[in-house]
Amino acid sequence: MLYHGDFDWGGLRIAGVLLRTVPWHPWRYTASDCRALVAATPSSRPLTGTPAEAPWDLALAPALAELGVRAEEETALDLLLADLA
After folding, report:
1. Which phi and psi angles does 7 have, rounded to 5°?
2. What are the phi and psi torsion angles at 44 (to 5°)?
3. Element (H, E) at 12
4. Locate the DUF2399 domain: which residues (predicted)?
């Protein structure tokens, strides 16, 4: 199963809970994907809240903290649809 979620602390928490019950692999949900999406989405909102870990990609949480912005899943929609095409 593939999974993609929001690039914010809440998104990482949701993905972590899901990962403990359903085995999945990240679908454009890694640190490099986050960096690329934020670079392509200049109107990203500030990252707020309590930091969370991303056990599927140990570089993701530090990348989010460094970037300081969040990217909702919807901003990746065109990429995800292109993968399915």
Report:
1. -90, 80
2. -60, 145
3. helix 9-21
4. 2-84
One digit per residue, the tens of pLDDT, for the chain of length 85 reads 999 999 999 999 999 999 999 999 999 999 999 999 999 887 778 999 999 999 999 999 999 999 999 998 888 999 999 999 9
| Residues present in the chain in total | 85
Tell me which residue has tokens 């969040």: 70
What is each CA distance from 46 to 13, 15, 30, 39, 77, in whole angstroms? 18, 20, 19, 14, 20
| Partners of residue 7 on adjacent β-strands | 71
